[in-house]
Design brief:
seven-stranded antiparallel β-sheet, 22 strands, globular, about 40% strand, about 260 residues, SH3 type barrels, about 15% helix, mainly beta, 4 helices
Length: about 260
């Protein structure tokens, strides 16, 4: 489907839904700086069907939250190594108005002079180059910044995130691109054949009795797993699965392990 418009999020967090209505399931979010293509509009032009550029996830956003950009700017964003924020929350000035953005937002700051930014934007928080790949220690540091974030289906922010969102965002900030859905993520990277071969930074996937992958998390040192389950938390991990730190009962059963950072 050919895009009919292009956009970039200029709000901190924008819900993207499975259907064009406010009560529809949220399937993902746009954070500040995420850019996207508009594929269609509802007949009343109140909702836009969008495809997020970074992971190709598709859904519907309220047209009032759409910030249109030119095709030229869209293509320039694709080629520019902007900065990605690493603070849980950062104050910015956008068009002389204050705005708080969340960790994992893309800010239009780079070393490239190919495109003149016409928007008034000021940011002095912590960030790194979006395309700069970092090691497992950095990945672990970022993942732990999400600790105690409440579980939210379709969420991607430190104030509400789901299991695949936590994995995707931690790796994105570390410089690695993952898909949005847990089943898509389970096909990325290198498969680890045995639990004993797993190491910190690997991604663990969990399935129900029908072998349907339902959950994921990042393996830490000491046979621990950081994952979003009620809230972002760290629980013990064994060859069988992950246990609740409080009840010592298995909550998820291990299906497979994948390695992204080789």
């Amino acid at each position: 489907m050919e895009p009919i418009d292009y956009g970039v999020s200029r709000l901190a967090v924008v819900p993207v839904r499975i259907d064009p209505r406010d009560t529809a399931e949220q399937i993902t979010q746009l954070l500040f700086g995420d850019h996207y293509q508009v594929l269609a509009l509802t007949p009343d032009k109140k909702w836009a069907q969008v495809q997020v550029y970074s992971d190709q996830c598709e859904g519907w956003m309220d047209i009032k939250q759409h910030h249109a950009i030119s095709k030229e700017y869209f293509e320039q964003i694709n080629q520019t190594d902007f900065k990605i924020t690493t603070d849980v929350a950062s104050p910015v000035l956008y068009k002389k108005s204050p705005l708080t953005i969340v960790m994992g937002s893309i800010v239009p700051i780079s070393n490239s002079e190919l495109f003149k930014i016409e928007e008034q934007f000021a940011f002095n928080g912590e960030s790194k180059g979006l395309g700069q790949k970092r090691d497992v220690d950095f990945l672990r540091l970022i993942a732990k910044k999400y600790l105690s974030a409440p579980y939210q289906w379709g969420g991607k922010s430190p104030f509400g995130i789901d299991a695949s969102g936590l994995v995707q965002m931690a790796f994105k900030i570390a410089g690695y691109s993952l898909q949005r859905d847990v089943r898509q993520q389970s096909l990325q990277g290198k498969k680890i054949k045995a639990y004993e071969e797993a190491r910190p930074g690997d991604i663990a996937f969990f399935a129900d009795k029908g072998e349907n992958i339902k959950h994921t998390g990042i393996i830490l040192d000491g046979q621990k797993l950081i994952h979003a389950y009620g809230q972002v938390r760290i629980d013990p991990l064994t060859e069988e699965g992950t246990l609740s730190s409080e009840t010592k009962v298995y909550t998820h059963y291990l299906h497979s392990i994948r390695r992204i950072i080789l």
